[in-house]
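subagent[fold] <- orchestrator: predict structure for attached chain, return tokens only, no commentary.
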Amino acid sequence: MQFVCFHFMPWQDLPQDFEEKHETAWLTLPNGVFDPEKGHRLYAQYLDQLVAAERLGFDVVGVNEHHQNAYGLMPSPNIIAACLTQRTSRVKILILGNALPFYDHPQRVAEEVAMLDVISGGRIIAGMVVGLGVEAYTYEVNPTFMRERYREAHDLIVRAWTEREPFHFEGKHYDFRFVNVWPRPIQQPHPPIWIPGSGSIETIRWVAERRYPFIALPFSPIQVMKEHYDTLREYSSTTLGEEVTPERLGWPVIVYVSDTDEKARKEFEPHFWYLAKKCLRMPREYMFPPGHTSVESLTRVTGTKRKFVTMLTSWDEVEEGLYAVVGSPATVREKMREALKMTGCGIVQGVFQVGSMPHEQAMRNMELFAKEVMPHLREEFPW
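subagent[fold] -> orchestrator:
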């Protein structure tokens, strides 16, 4: 079992009347809303939280990549990862970017991740993501070609990490006469690659064929995530003739632990709704630009039982769908125990700071989870 302390690094100070004045926190929200001085303090606090995860016994710390939004202040996750290489010594560092279709020079990704792996002493996990539909607009990438660009960039990067002589790469979207990455990574044949996905059948099949760990995207009900894992298992079994082991399945989960169930909900709920109703507020056409998602995959993410977190209207729905695991240590242990039995995941990607949650509250949440929950789950699920 691997425990990840993952971070969104949200902007915490969207105005009270945000929903009345702004259609979304993505793409068109004026950057005048951002206060650089407060941003300086937030980055310091968020880095302190990730650094503390090593002391608390987490196996991995995780960062991600998003652009032109208040949901996450990490347009360059490699910069955050570089900070973490210097402030930690043991914990692995998961970069759940880079968003490969956005780069006209994927060699840059190969170089930077290789540098980080060498600087960190071989502690980098390379997440490779297609990117959300809305982010096709941020770099003016044709969404119809995002998946093609992603796979071609992936192939180039893996070859750049593993081949020992210069080579010419010629594809549909990228053509480089010389590929000869210096430095090359410490981890051989290359840093581990984890792939996140929202359930598109194309991603699931591609991940299965390459035997990469698959990390479901958060903000959907646990039953929907289980369907994604089951689809991966079925495809691997019937088409590839192999079993998907727990270490290849990741469960992203928002967690909040406090002294009692009542206190946990009272402390946590306002920050959850800040995330759901402000940070993730987005028109549907931004999320699904034409061509970004196939018809087959689009049908997998629609329907009344597949509510995205922004569609929730009550705390009962949050609990029923396990959009967040909230309660006393005993309650959180039991809920997570049942979810792990149901899904068979060997990676728990926990999110402990949510929305507008203050630094001290996030730290106490992490400490309670690390002391009162994580050791019990490790003992019960030794995979």
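orchestrator: received. Logging for downstream: Residues 1 and 381 are 7 Å apart (CA to CA). The first helix runs from residue 18 to 21.
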